[in-house]
Amino acid sequence: MNYNPSPVDTSCVRLSDEIEALKESLARNAHDVWARQRLDQGWTYGLNRNDDAKTHPCLIPYEELPESEKEYDRKTAIETLRMIIALGYQIKRV
What are the DSSP E strand ranges found in 2-48? Predict the structure, then answer.
C-alpha cells in the first residue's frame, strides 16, 4: 500500500472568535453522528472496545467522554472549519 495522506495545509487560516466558538458544538455533533451510526449497527456501551461483541467505551454522551476523545472531535471540527474558509467560503450567522 502506498497511501500518503496529504491534507490541505490550513495552518495559515485564522478563525474569528465567533467561528472558533462553533468548535464545541461541531465536536459534540460529530460524536453524536458517530454514536448514532454505531448504535444503528448494533453496537452497545462496554468498558472495552470489542469489535466482535460490538461494544465501545465511547458510546456515552459527549460531556462524559474523556478529554482525549473530546479533543479528537474538536480537531476534526476545527480542521473542517479551516478547510471551509481556505476554500473561499464564508461562515456567517444569520
Answer: 44-45
Longest dimension (CA), the chain: 46
Q: List, for residues 7-41, the tens digit of each pLDDT value.
A: 999 999 999 998 988 999 999 999 999 999 999 99
pTM of the model as a whole:
0.85
What are the structural domains of the chain?
A: 17-86 (1.10.490.160)
**C-beta separation of 2 from 74 below 8 A:** no
- Cβ contacts of residue 47 below 8 Å, gap of 6+? 55, 57
For residues 76 and 67, the answer to whether their CB atoms sit within 8 Å is: no
N residues, the chain: 94
What is the number of alpha carbons within 13 Å of residue 84 lying toward its C-beta?
13
Per DSSP, 50 falls in state: B
